[in-house]
Amino acid sequence: MKRWYLQPSIWLGAAVLLVVAAAAALAGVLFPDDPLDMVGAPYTWPGADPATPLGTDLMGRDLLAGLAHGARVSLLVGVSSALVALAIGVAVGAAAGFYRGRTDAVLSRITEFFQTIPAFLLAIILVAVLKPTLGTIVFALGVTSWTSVARLVRAEFLSLREREYVRAAVAVGASDAHLILREILPNAWTPIIVSTGLLVANAILSEAGLAFLGLGDPNVVSWGSMIGLGRDALRTGWYMTAIPGLAVVLTVLALNLLSDGLQAALNPRLRRVRAA
Questions:
Q1: pTM more than 0.90
Q2: What's 238's domain CATH number?
C-alpha cells in the first residue's frame, strides 16, 4: 500500500501552506514598516518599480507587504476561530453522544437551531453589533461554525460508546470524565483532525468576506480588506483585487487538498479501497 505521506495532495497542500506560514512569520522582518503606509505612487503595476515588485494599490501601499502581513491575519483568524469551533463542537457533540436520551435531544435541537441560521449572516450581525476587531471576528466565526463538528463528534461517540473497551472501563467503575476523555475521545480524533482543515479554510474565506464588506479590523491589513479596496479600481487596476484574491484561493485550496489527503490516509475504509 502506498504510504500516506507520499500522496501528492498532502505534499502540494503542505507546500503551499508552508509558504503562507513562512510569509506570515517573516512579515515583520521582511517588511518592518506599517503595511498601511504609503510607499510609492498609486496605481503602480506589478514589475514597474523594483521597490514594489507586486505594485501598489490606489493609495500607494505596497501590495507585497500587504500580502505578507495579510497572511498573518488570515492564518491567525482561521486557526483561532477553528479552535473556538472545535472547543464548542467537541463539548456539545461529546455530551450528546455520551449521555444520549434527554441530553442528546436538547443539544441536538440547539445544534439544529444554529444550523437553520446562515452562518455568514450571523457572523455579520455579531461583528456589526460587537465592533469589528480581530477578537470579535474570531469569536463570531467560531460560534457560527461549530455545528458540523458537534454532529460529527456526536456520531462518533454514539458508535464508540458501545465498544467493548468502553464497557470494560464502565465495569471497573470508571467515571464519566475518564470514559469521555481517556477512552472515547482519543479514538474519535481522526475525523476531527480532518475537519479542522476545512474549518480553517472556511474561516479564512469568511474573514475575507467580512473584510470585503467593510467589517474587518481597520487597524490591520488582511487579504479581504485588500480585495475590498481594489474593487474601486477593477477597470483600471484589476491586479489590486486579483493578487490578494489569488492568495485566498491558493490557501483555501491547499487546506482542502490537505484535508482530503488526510481523510484518505486516516480512514481505514478508504485505505482498503486504494489498496484494492
A1: no
A2: 1.10.3720.10
